[in-house]
Amino acid sequence: MEFRLFIARSGSAKNAVLRQRLQTMTEVQEVTQHPALLEDIGRECLHSIRIAHSRHPIGRYTCLMHVFDFTEKPEYIAIADYGLGRVFAGVDFAHRLIEKGFLTEVSQAEAENGDLVAYFREGNFKHVGLWQPNGRVLSKWGVGHLYDHALFEVPESYGTAVRFYGALSYEAAYELFVQFAQENGIPFENADP
């Protein structure tokens, strides 16, 4: 089964301004300013973005850690902290999952609650979130908050193309991460960590 990337076609000036403003907001390193900045953006650009409740401190996880439930899991942290954190659930891990076919692509119409919504810019993975039953996305933006948002209510750097993939359980994602870590020189005491 082959699917094509879903490309944002809104092209509206308002959507472009919103995405530019969201980009600027996410570049502000002082995350405590983000809620006020989001409110300011809402005065200029209509949007439906809401800060979602996070079970974990927002500074302790990324979008990939969120979708695979790696956040604050000791076994993930032990690997990610090894060797000054050079192996972690980041862009390289996402590319490996996609390129090796470890993620099963589905159409947007087939996407179910908890499936992955991956964002691409110029063919490169940039971001991922979780599809929700109401057709919205729950995703962690950079150093910032966890957000509930419409499909293309995201910073412009995330690109204009999305792909949908079936969800991976924590166990399956962790096993793939261990393989990725081994391939990148992280030693394990035995063959089956």
Structure description:
The protein has 193 residues and is of the alpha+beta class. It has a domain at 49-183: endopeptidase fold (from Nostoc punctiforme), CATH 3.90.1720. 32% of the residues lie in helices and 17% in strands. It is built from 6 helices and 8 strands, in the order E-H-H-E-H-H-H-E-E-E-E-E-E-H. The protein has helices spanning 13-26, 34-44, 63-67, 74-81, 91-99, 170-183; strands at 6-7, 50-51, 105-106, 116-121, 124-131, 137-140, 146-149, 161-165. Strands 1, 2, 3, 4, 5, 6, 7 and 8 form an 8-stranded antiparallel beta sheet that branches. A hairpin with a 5-residue loop joins strand 5 (124-131) and strand 6. Helix 1 (13-26) packs antiparallel against helix 2 (34-44). It is globular, with a radius of gyration of 17 Å. Mean pLDDT is 91; it is low at 1-10.
- The chain-level structural class is alpha+beta
The overall average pLDDT, rounded, is 91
Give the low-pLDDT segments.
1-10
What characteristic shape results from the CA principal axes? globular
Features:
193 residues; alpha+beta; endopeptidase fold (from Nostoc punctiforme); 8-stranded antiparallel sheet; 6 helices; 17% strand
Short summary:
The protein has 193 residues and is α+β, with helices and mostly antiparallel strands. It has a domain at 49-183: Alpha-Beta Complex (endopeptidase fold (from Nostoc punctiforme)), CATH 3.90.1720.
Topology:
Blueprint (H helix, E strand, L loop, with lengths): L5 E2 L5 H14 L7 H11 L5 E2 L11 H5 L6 H8 L9 H9 L5 E2 L9 E6 L2 E8 L5 E4 L5 E4 L11 E5 L4 H14 L10
Antiparallel strand pairs: 1-8, 2-7, 3-8, 4-5, 4-8, 5-6, 6-7
